[in-house]
Amino acid sequence: MLFGIDVASVDDNHDVNWAVAKAQGPISFAIIRATQATHVDTQFAAAWPQLKATGLVRGAYMFLDFPKIGATAQPPDVQAKAFIDTVGTLSTDDLPPALDVEFPHGRAGTGMSVNAALEWIHAAWAKLHDWYKVPPIIYTSGRVWHEDLDDVPVTDLLDSPLWLARYYWSEDKPAMRDAAQFANGLHAPPVPTPWGSAWAIHQYQGDAVAMPGFSSTVDMNRFNTLLQGSNSDAVTWAQRRLRITADGDFGPKTAAAVKAFQHTHGMVADGIIGPRTFAKLCWQD
């Protein structure tokens, strides 16, 4: 099991030691907030290079603000441009930009229809996609997509890997890092209907405490590692990027293709799709 975290300045961590988090967590990846609407997260500038120096697979996300009844919001493409201006260039060692899609007060609080909300999401998605030339990761949940977006079908958004929230452990409790809790598909996140069974990252505990290297809270995540024997729409996603038959079955041919891809890109050729190989695959045309 490969664990990771996500944080923002609202978590109020001070003097974060990413090396300790990586070694003692242990964690393999970290995603940090770059912007909310057009506001830059106050901890981003310091944390972003530290993640790279520590050797973690790093990612950045933008929290997309929606209008509220009686109040406007910056247009979604303007919000995405603020993210681009803040993060700048991403490398193929980094995760693609992540677009946070949630409705803290429910979609009803925005005064938008489902189609209008989807257009808002797509405008931000398209701005990120056109700039970085990669489908952004979408952070959301099965509940949000069902209750707020009525399981609306999508087309090009299906190219986006999913980072899904579904909490199984309480907030303000020690960070849960027992891999056995996820054995045999336990505590899996519900996947929004349009994506079938494809998900990449699961945020399984919010505002966890006692995470090595941190003085306050973090959100706990795990990566959906793919290896021989896996069978899911996530495998199909990977096979398309490996340019092999996309049948969702991670058999010997897929393992060989993964090893060849890893070798070409200077990675350990173990035939397993973890966060580092996943990041590289995301940037494949």
Describe the structure in your own words.
This protein has 285 residues and is an alpha/beta fold. It folds into 2 domains: 3-224, Alpha-Beta Barrel (TIM Barrel), CATH 3.20.20.80; 225-285, Muramoyl-pentapeptide Carboxypeptidase, domain 1 (Orthogonal Bundle), CATH 1.10.101.10. It is 31% helix and 18% strand. The protein has 8 helices and 9 strands. It has helices spanning 18-24, 44-54, 76-87, 114-132, 142-148, 233-242, 252-264, 275-282; strands spanning 3-7, 29-36, 39-40, 57-63, 98-100, 137-140, 162-169, 201-208, 218-223. The chain has an 8-stranded mixed beta barrel, surrounded by 4 helices. α3 packs parallel to α4. The model has no long low-confidence stretch (mean pLDDT 97).
Q: What layout of secondary structure does this protein have?
A:
Elements: E1 3-7, H1 18-24, E2 29-36, E3 39-40, H2 44-54, E4 57-63, H3 76-87, E5 98-100, H4 114-132, E6 137-140, H5 142-148, E7 162-169, E8 201-208, E9 218-223, H6 233-242, H7 252-264, H8 275-282
Parallel strand pairs: 1-2, 2-4, 4-5, 5-6, 6-7, 7-8
Antiparallel strand pairs: 1-9, 2-3, 8-9
Helix pairs in contact: 3-4
